[in-house]
Amino acid sequence: MKRYFITGTDTGVGKTVVSAALVLALQASYWKPIQSGESDLDQVKKLTQFSDDFFHPANYSLKASLSPDQAAALENMTIQVDHCVVPNTEKILITEGAGGVMAPINETACMLDLIKHVNAPVIIVSRGTLGTINHTLMTIEMLRQRRLPIHGVVFSGELNPENQKAIEKKGNIRTLFHLPLLDLNTLKNWVTENKIQITENFA
């Protein structure tokens, strides 16, 4: 089973929209094992309008829009990485993380531990604007310290091409694609128009 893990340089960087774009382009299934706050699963369903068999429920659905460990503590719960059982699917599996790679899951584990558990190449979603070079290179460094494979970077929203070049060179990493700011009405058309560019990096 092919699978990819979507992480971001920080919260709100565009992981969910990128996940939806990949689900559309690759006819993939979607799983967010740890959800805190508003449901990203519902958002991907809305953006793709795919049937329910493309989606897998979260192992942890937490009410508060906080880091996973803090949201779980409010519900007198401790998240266990081993309880996040990878779904069995014949489709490509897109797994979306929560926050960045160092986002804490419990007192000892962070999102890096979940990535290792899922055992999938990582796609880093980055902003293209000021600050992205530092955040992206630090994310790359943390993943490589843990010897976790990186599939590439996706830039989300406005993009400064010089930032992209710097990240590719200094991080020794490739750009998979750039996803501009899109909504429900434009994402599907954009994916259709750019499907060849997207899928050529997932053959």
Verbal overview:
38% of the residues lie in helices and 21% in strands. It is α/β, with parallel strands linked by helices and 203 residues long. The chain has one domain: 3-Layer(aba) Sandwich (Rossmann fold). The strands form two sheets. A seven-stranded parallel β-sheet has the order 4-2-6-1-7-8-9, sandwiched between helices. It has a two-stranded parallel sheet with strand order 3-5. The longest helix has 16 residues, at 184-199. It is globular, with a radius of gyration of 16 Å. The two termini are 13 Å apart.
CATH superfamily: P-loop containing nucleotide triphosphate hydrolases
Q: Kindly, what is the distance between the CA atoms of the first and last residues, rounded to a whole number of angstroms? A: 13 Å
Helix content range: 25-40%
Oligomer: single chain
Describe the global form.
globular
Uncertain stretches of 5 or more adjacent residues: none
The whole-angstrom Rg is 16 Å
CATH architectural arrangement: 3-Layer(aba) Sandwich
- Mean pLDDT comes to 96
How many helical stretches? 7
Q: What is the structural class?
A: alpha/beta
- Say how many strands there are: 9
Number of domains: 1
Q: Please give the order of strands in the largest beta sheet.
A: 4-2-6-1-7-8-9
* CATH topology descriptor: Rossmann fold
CATH class: Alpha Beta
Which helices and strands, and how do they pair?
Elements lengths: L2 E6 L6 H12 L2 E3 L2 E3 L3 H9 L6 E2 L3 E3 L5 H7 L18 E4 L14 H8 L3 E7 L3 H14 L4 E10 L1 H11 L3 E5 L4 H16 L4
Parallel strand pairs: 1-6, 1-7, 2-4, 2-6, 3-5, 7-8, 8-9
